[in-house]
Each structure stands twice: as C-alpha cells, then as structure tokens.
Amino acid sequence: MTANLQGSLNLTGSQPDRHIYQMDNDKHEIALYTKDLQVSYGNNVALKNADLSFERFKITSLIGASGSGKSTFLRSLNRMNDDVATVDGQIMYRGLDINSHDIDVYEMRKHIGMVFQRPNPFAKSISDNITFALKQHGLHDKAKLAEIVETSLKQAALWDEVKDDLKKSALSLSGGQQQRLVIARAIAMKPDILLLDEPASALDPISSAKIEDTLMELKKHYTIIIVTHNMQQASRISDYTAFFHTGEVVEYDLTRKIFTRPKVQLTIDYVNGNFG
Amino acid sequence: MLNPKQSDKLASIMLYSIAGFVILVLAALVGYILVQGVPHLSWHFLTSPSSAFTAGGGIGVQLFNSFYLLIITMIISFPIALGAGIYLHEYANQKNQFIRLTRTAIEILSSLPSVVVGLFGFLLFVVQFKLGFSILSGAIALTFFNLPLLTRSVEDSLRSIPDLQREAGAALGLSRWETVGHIILPAAVPSIVTGVVLSAGRVFGEAAALIYTAGQSAPALDFGDWNPFNTASPLNIMRPAETLAVHIWKVNSEGIMPDAAAVSAGASAVLIIAVLLFNFLARFLSSVLYKHLTATK
After folding, report:
1. Does residue B120 form part of some domain?
2. Which of A241, A250, B93, B232 has the maximal Cβ count within 10 Å?
3. ipTM confidence score
4. Per-residue model confidence as pLDDT tens digits over A209-267
5. CA distance A215 to chain B (A)
6. Domain assignment present for A9
7. Do A124 and B297 touch (CB under 8 A)?
8. What are the pLDDT digits (tens) for A92-120?
9. Which residues are CB-neighbours of A207 under 8 A, at least 6 positions away?
10. What's the CA gap between A110 and A44, in Å, rounded?
11. In CATH, what number is assigned to the domain containing residue B175?
C-alpha cells in the first residue's frame, strides 16, 4: 500500500504533538468519518476533536490506555452513548450525518453493528440468537433464515462446532464460542461496518486467536473498527491504528508505521510499553 | 485476638445458628398448625359450606372465595405492576424528581397498615362507589397493597438482567420495546414469578383489609351455575365473599358453633397448605415458562 503523507500535520524534523493521517478520498474508499467529534459526560469531556476516517474493507484498531476515550469514541459511532453522554460533531456515513437528531438510530444500527467486550448472547437457542432480530425486522422465510444462520456461523468460524445442536441454549457455549456467536449475530444483519469493543479481552489466548482469524476473514466483506488493549493483536490484524491519549487522537496512521516509526513521542512511549 | 481462620469459623457458626433459629421458628409454627389442623381435614370439611350455629360446618365456600379473590386481585394488579415496573426501570429517567417521588409514594403505599386500607376501601368503594361488600371491592383494596410489592419485585427482576442484554438488542437495531418484550422480560420471568408468589401469599392470608370490603358473609354458592351475572354463581364478582383468612378471624373472635376451635385449626392448616402448594406450583410453572421462552433445555 502506498503511503499518503500529504495531509500530515508536520513534515519537518522535530517531534510533532499530533499526527493524523489524512486519507486521500480518490485512492481510498471511505466507509465512515468523523468531524470534530466531542463526547462529554456531564462536565467531563471524555473525547475532543476526533477527526478520523475509516477505509472500507480494512481493519482499524483504536489503542490507548484506559480512560483515553477510545471506547467512548467507538460507542459514539453507532449512537450507543446517547443516553449517557453528550455527543457533538459529525459522524458521516454515506453522505449522512448519523449523529444528527433526525436519524433513525434503529435503522442506522442495522448498518453499523457492534460486538461488546463481554459475550452477551440472549437466553435463547443458538439459532434464535441469530434469527431473532431478523424476524423482528420482518424476515420470516424459514429457508432464508436457516441459510443466514449457516453462513453467518461459518463466517464467524463457529459452524463446525455447533452445527449439530443449533437448538441448544446459547448460554451453554464456552466464552469464546459465545463471543463468536455474538459476532455471527452481528454479521447476520449484513452491516456495512462492524464495531468491536475489546472483543477478545475476556477470552483465553486460543479463543482470542480464533476471533482474530475470524476478523481477518470478515474484512473481505466488512469494514471493521476494533478497540483493543492488546498491542500484538492490533499489529497483527489491523491495517490502520489510531492512538488515543487523554481524550485526544494523538496519532493515526498505517499500523506498520505506528508500530515501527511513530511520529509522536507519546505514541513511541506507548507502543514500547514505557508508559507512565 | 482470633486468627482469621478462627474468626471465620466463629462467624460461620453464628450465621448458621441464626439461620437455624429462623428455620426452627418456621418449622415449629408450621408444624404446630399442621398437627393441630390436619386431623380435622376431610373431604366434607373442604367442600361443604360453613355453618353458624351447629357443628360439622366446612370451609368450601371460603376456600373458593380465597382463590377467586386472589385471581381477581392478580388480574387487576399484575398488569399495572408490570407496566409500572417496566416504565420505572426501562424507560424513566432515573434522575427525574417525579420518578423519585413516585418511588417514595410506592414505598409509603406498601407500608400502610392493612386495616387502614380496608377502612378506606370500605368508605370509597363499598359506600361511595356503591360496590357493596363484594369481591370487586375486596380485590381493589388488596390491589392497593399488592401493587407496591409487585411493582418493586418486577423492577428488581428487570434490574437483575445485565445491561449487556439491552446493549445487545440496541446494537441489532431493535427498539427498546422489542428488547424489553422479547429479551429482557423472558429472562426475568423466574424472578417475576417469585415476586408474584410472594405477594400472592400475602394476599391469600390477608384478613384485615377484607373484613370491610369483601365482607364477612359467605352466601351459599351454586357450583353448577357459572354465569357470572347470577347472584349464586361462584364467578359473580359483586357478591359478598368471606375468605378463609377472614373466616379464621371470625370463628376465633365471635364463632358460636360448638366446634369453633376445630374449624379454626382445620382452616388454618388449609391456609398454610394452600400457600405452600401455590409456592411449589408457581416455581414449577416458572421453570417451564422460562424453558419455553428461552429455549434452554
């Protein structure tokens, strides 16, 4: 991939305090971008001036310490923060500002799906977990539903483990299986964009590796934005990485640049683990 | 000073003895009532109407009245409590002053003495609204203190379902109503049913609030007549209906039949057994319902 540096804030010698990679819209298809996004809980500003663009069919990692605003940012993208925080600024998706008041958030969330840190399957059977929302949205064709169950479970790399007991309760699955079921449930909606909030942090390394493989496979069809605390994970799977610190995006660039030649001292410290 | 191991042991012993004491009191109470009452039980006692002056009266009508009043009370109070509980926990802005006021009001309502509720019900429903001594008056009075208990338990049941489930629903583009109706409520069914059972037990045993609302007389019922508009029909909700608990109170305070003590002991045993049966039945039903709603086998 050719690096595009024309928008870098600072191209001259000394350490800049911010570096945001500006995507060139002609070369990269942008799935979603934010403009001046600011999130506050009461008087406490958790995120300020976030301008990030996300390329289509790529994985973008959001990294940073706890409280850096990365999860807040992610949850704002599909309006999950509406009840708890004030979100100002624009989130542009297909030419629409989805942060505006007149957006039908329920419809929007069908396009922008989300997977959470802790697996949260419904207390229903494995197949009902996947079909429930589809049925609520008006799909009742049994053959079609069965087909979606199969394809989404296959995409989430869970099919082989559960294909014989789809009627079993989802709660009987292991944590790693539950998380893949939840991913299957999210992609059954055929979203454009999949947001993942530390999806592997509650899992053991083997389950975690399976989730990573799943994501690599999924990026052929979906734009993925993932919050992670795991630096190796970010460097293994993502194409772009954004580093958040105290509510600001400090550096955003191609993942290999963030991990090999970061431009900002804070990023260097963070990715090297020298964080105070 | 005790070392941690010893203090742990001491604490365990104390907690076990306290729990043991509670169980002992319950067992003694239930045991005494059953031992006193069960010998008087017979099919005749359970099915025949009571008699005011002669020995050999039963509690058939009172037993039916108790169950029927309980059902009518639940039909009135459960939908209101369910709606209120869902609103308070899932929809209401928790910081709103009005909501806080509502919560306080519910708590005050639940601490009202039942005899006060009974007299209030007498003045308002029996006299003012001209409902007379009737099952309907009694059911409305019972709804008064059943509501806070039920609302609270519905709210607590909903609170016990993790927010992760609500987020899961929202992230799939489901409306709050769909999420609550199809995901949160089914998962909360066992604990909602437990709440219903607890309040049902209380309603079943209530006497003070019913004396002046459902009345103290149990006119004979014609169990062959199921038209709710006929006076003698068991289903008529406008007829006076002495319940089992009221009957026990009445027999003890002013009963002049020769076998008053036996009737009272037998009726008490039936009351206890009915509450226990109701408990087990409800637990069984809730587990069946939970499995059915959530496909967990």
Report:
1. yes
2. A241
3. 0.84
4. 988 999 999 999 999 999 999 999 999 999 999 999 999 999 999 999 999 999 998 99
5. 18
6. no
7. no
8. 999 999 999 999 999 999 999 999 999 99
9. A174, A175, A176, A177, A179, A200
10. 30
11. 1.10.3720.10
